[in-house]
Design brief:
CATH topology: MetI-like fold
Radius of gyration: 24 Å
Number of domains: 1
Distance between the termini: 33 Å
CATH class: Mainly Alpha
CATH superfamily: MetI-like
Number of strands: 0
Structural class: mainly alpha
Order of helices and strands: HHHHHHHHHHHHHHH
Shape: globular
Helix content: 55-70%
Number of helices: 15
Strand content: under 5%
Length: about 280
């Protein structure tokens, strides 16, 4: 029997509360700054309670009607670009990884494991090593300032391929034989058996890849030069001009709060599936 110690419970809860405060306080300050005027934000000390300009600031940010320096792109448009990019990257990674893992596990062809290790080795290459040649290819194909340029180079995923391969290896051989006896071809087996069994793993990967796609900074910074193709993460940086006097920090903070909402909603709505996909072995 485990002995309960009240002081240990108090200590663990105190550490948890302190950790939450450390993480949540910057978010709270961002929200407070997004409800004040630009002059209130840059004064010292900055107000620590929400102000009366909530609707005005967020409407200005979404419409791109601000007056300060830096980019004046509409945040609504930037969020649409980020959403399309994140969803395309997420579904593209899951689809390609499922098919590549399926081929590696269930088909016998020459150099099968060599192809798998070639995919896996790409995990060891830093992004900076690949980004120059990738940019050259994208530029030569005329995909700058396009959704294809933002998403296609990021769709392949060695991590997802490895995870699906490991999952497929745990599927009983009897299930494969039963499907073959019933006359199911490879794609029928893939669609009707493997994909449903992989649902929780796909959900967990979707959460990870959506946040990955939404928070992309370096690659969109290289391939987008037009304001109408800025993702919201790039837009936040482009809204910051040279000095505090020229930057409307209240609008920048409102944009930052809007940028946090979609990933937070995805995590909250899919939390159950995300945890289940990481810890459960559903067969």
């Amino acid at each position: 029997m485990v002995e309960r110690r009240p002081w240990l419970d108090f200590l663990s809860h105190a550490i948890l509360v302190i950790g939450v405060l450390v993480v949540a306080f910057p978010v709270y300050i961002t929200f407070v700054a997004s409800t004040h005027t630009a002059q209130d934000v840059v004064q010292a000390p900055m107000p620590l309670l929400p102000g009366p300009h909530f609707v005005e600031n967020y409407t200005t940010a979404l419409a791109g009607e601000r007056q300060g320096g830096g980019s004046h792109a509409a945040v609504g448009r930037m969020m649409v670009v980020s959403l399309i990019s994140a969803l395309t990257i997420s579904f593209g990674k899951i689809t390609i990884s499922l098919l590549s893992a399926f081929a590696i596990v269930y088909f016998r062809f020459p150099f099968r494991m060599a192809f798998f290790w070639a995919i896996f080795v790409t995990l060891m290459l830093p992004v900076e090593v690949r980004i120059g040649p990738t940019y050259k290819v994208v530029s030569d194909l005329g995909m700058l300032n396009s959704y294809a340029g933002l998403t296609v180079p990021l769709i392949a995923s060695a991590t997802a391929t490895f995870l699906f391969r490991q999952f497929f290896l745990t599927v009983p051989d009897e299930l494969v034989e039963a499907a073959r006896v019933d006359g199911a071809g490879p794609m029928r087996f893939f669609k009707d058996i493997l994909v449903p069994l992989s649902a929780t793993s796909m959900a967990a990967l979707f959460v990870i890849q959506f946040i990955y796609g939404w928070n992309q900074y370096l690659w969109p910074l290289l391939v987008t030069t037009q304001e109408n193709m800025y993702p919201v993460v790039i837009g936040i940086r482009q809204m910051i001009s040279g000095g505090d006097a020229q930057t409307e920090w209240n609008i920048v903070m409102a944009t930052a709060m809007l940028a946090m909402l979609p990933p937070a909603l995805v995590v909250m709505l899919m939390q159950k599936w995300f945890v289940k996909g990481l810890v459960d072995t559903e067969k």
